[in-house]
C-alpha cells in the first residue's frame, strides 16, 4: 500500500485519494470552504448535497480543470495541484461529466469515442484521434480489442459497428461515457451524476456496473442525487452544504444524521430503505 502525506506532514496510508482543506471562491462567493476527506482503495465514496453545494466544483479541482484558492489533492502520496488535467488523467484518474460529452466530429462513431478515451495511452493528440483514426486502428489493434471489451462490459457491444453516439438512447450514451473513461485504465473513477436521466431499469443496470467495477478493484468518487442508488452501492458518503462538509460516514450514519436530514434528505428520509425515488 502506498502512503500519503497530508498538509501537516503526517503519513496517511489509509486513503488512495485525499482532498485536504480545499477552498474555492468565484467572484467573492465561496463554492468550497476547507473541505477534506479521503477515499480508500476499491471503495465507492458518494458525494451528495443540494444543487450548488460545490460537488462538481470539487470534481473539477480534483481532475485539474480548476485550481483551488487553497488546499491540496493527494493521489498515491503525490500532490496533484501543479499538474494539468491530461497529466492527472495519466496518473490514473478518469472522469465523466454531468452533461454527456461525446465526440461526433468527422463522423466519429462509438468505437472512435473509445479510442479517444485511450489517447493518454496511445500518445497521439486529440486531433489525430479524430481525423487519423484509420491509422490509429491499424497501429493499435490491442487497443481496439480493449475497446470491444469495455463495450461488452457496459452492454454496448452491438453498438461497436457503424453507430453514431448521437443515435444511441440517452442511457446508452451515459454507458458509453463510462466505457470511454475506462479506456484510460484508471485506478480512480470520478463520476458526476452518471444516473441522471436514467429510468429505473437503467439505474439498476448501472448499479451492477458500479459494483462490478468495485469488485475489479476500482476506486470511485460518485456525485449523484439518486439516493437509492447511493445507499445500494456506497461504502461511505460525504455531504456538502453551501460548500462546507456537513457530514461524513457510512450509509446508515448519514441516513440517521439529523443535520443531513434537515439540509438535504428531508423528513421522509426513511424511504431510503426502499422504493423508487431521487433526492
Compute the CA-based radius of gyration.
19 Å
What strand line-up does the widest sheet have? 8-9-10-5-11-12
Low-pLDDT stretches: 1-11, 270-279
Q: Oligomeric form of this entry?
A: single chain
Shape: globular
* Through-space gap between termini: 36 Å
Fraction of residues in helices?
A: 25-40%
Overall pLDDT metric: 83
Per DSSP E runs of 2 or more residues, the count of β-strands stands at 12
| Class by alpha and beta content | alpha/beta
Q: Tell me the fraction of residues in β-strands, as a range.
A: 15-25%
Give the helices and strands as they follow along the chain.
Answer: EEEEEHEEHEHHHHHHEHEHEEHH
Number of helices: 12
Main beta sheet: 6 strands, mixed
Amino acid at each position: 500500500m502506498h502512503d500519503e502525506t497530508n498538509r501537516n506532514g503526517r503519513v496517511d496510508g489509509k486513503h488512495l485519494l485525499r482532498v485536504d482543506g480545499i477552498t474555492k471562491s468565484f467572484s467573492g462567493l465561496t463554492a468550497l470552504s476547507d473541505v477534506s476527506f479521503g477515499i480508500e482503495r476499491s471503495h465507492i465514496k458518494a458525494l451528495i448535497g443540494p444543487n450548488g453545494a460545490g460537488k462538481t466544483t470539487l470534481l473539477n479541482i480534483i481532475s485539474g480543470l480548476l485550481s483551488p484558492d487553497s488546499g491540496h489533492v493527494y493521489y498515491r502520496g503525490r500532490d496533484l495541484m501543479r499538474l494539468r488535467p491530461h497529466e492527472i488523467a495519466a496518473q490514473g484518474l478518469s472522469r465523466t461529466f454531468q452533461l454527456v460529452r461525446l465526440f461526433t466530429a468527422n463522423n466519429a462513431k462509438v468505437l472512435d469515442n473509445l479510442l479517444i478515451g485511450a489517447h493518454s495511452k496511445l500518445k497521439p493528440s486529440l486531433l489525430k484521434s479524430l481525423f487519423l483514426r484509420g491509422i490509429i486502428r491499424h497501429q493499435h489493434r490491442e487497443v481496439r480489442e480493449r475497446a470491444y471489451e469495455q463495450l461488452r462490459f457496459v452492454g454496448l457491444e452491438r453498438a461497436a459497428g457503424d453507430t453514431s453516439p448521437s443515435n444511441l438512447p440517452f442511457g446508452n450514451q451515459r454507458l458509453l461515457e463510462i466505457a470511454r473513461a475506462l479506456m484510460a485504465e484508471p485506478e480512480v473513477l470520478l463520476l458526476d451524476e452518471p444516473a441522471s436521466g436514467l429510468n429505473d431499469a437503467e439505474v439498476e443496470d448501472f448499479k451492477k456496473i458500479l459494483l462490478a467495477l468495485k469488485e475489479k478493484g476500482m476506486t470511485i468518487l460518485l456525485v449523484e442525487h439518486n439516493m437509492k442508488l447511493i445507499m445500494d452501492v456506497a461504502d461511505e458518503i460525504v455531504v456538502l452544504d453551501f460548500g462546507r462538509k456537513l457530514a461524513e460516514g457510512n450509509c446508515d450514519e448519514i441516513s440517521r444524521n439529523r443535520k443531513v436530514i434537515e439540509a438535504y434528505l428531508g423528513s421522509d428520509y426513511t424511504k431510503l430503505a426502499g422504493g423508487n425515488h431521487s433526492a
